[in-house]
Amino acid sequence: MDHRSDLVFLADLRPDEIRYRLQHYFKFLFVRDPLERLLSAYRNKFGEIREYQQRYGAEIVRRYRAGAGPSPAGDDVTFPEFLRYLVDEDPERMNEHWMPVYHLCQPCAVRYDFVGSYERLEADANQVLEWVRAPPHVRFPARQAWYRPASPESLHYHLCSAPRALLQDVLPKYILDFSLFAYPLPNVTRESCHK
């Protein structure tokens, strides 16, 4: 449903309509470990979705791969290339799939009634449904059998494979997501990466 074109966003409303909703609606937000979210977006958008490969992937390859040529397909972006792209992007202009949640959802400007997490997604989603008094037939959808989320192991592998200096450049863009939502910074020390 999040990809339907008929959804109404706050930005589509008049100021008085926005104020009313912010004052009277139940507002909730779901967060995820910032780097796990980036890895998931990278795997999904550049591994599976042609529109993202053409719109973003081709540009990333042109910018960050020596000898890429004028019209790369964009279907083979590496994780370090994606991280380099993020370092050079203005967080407020990023695509919503990798924009820091702090910018995307404005948690300091919007008083959310509930902040759930991806790590407790089913339980937290059910809590939201209970609080909004959703009818019993409304349930949070089960994951598709084919879905394979980014695991802590795959995140560790990708982070340890990326240049440490690149990670040091990316982390500040997401530092508010780490601190506001109590996610630990990644351990990419030499000792941790050799385990």
UniProtKB/TrEMBL annotation:
A single GO cellular-component term on record: Golgi membrane
A GO molecular-function annotation: sulfotransferase activity
Regions crossing the membrane: none
Its membrane topology: Single-pass type II membrane protein
Transmembrane in keyword set: yes
Entry keyword set: Carbohydrate metabolism, Glycoprotein, Golgi apparatus, Membrane, Signal-anchor, Transferase, Transmembrane, Transmembrane helix
Places the protein is found: Golgi apparatus membrane
Biological processes annotated in GO: carbohydrate biosynthetic process; dermatan sulfate proteoglycan metabolic process
InterPro entries hit by this protein: Carb_sulfotrans_8-10, Sulfotransferase
This enzyme's EC code(s): 2.8.2.-
Similarity annotation: Belongs to the sulfotransferase 2 family.
Name assigned to this protein: Carbohydrate sulfotransferase
Source organism of the structure: Balaenoptera physalus (Fin whale)
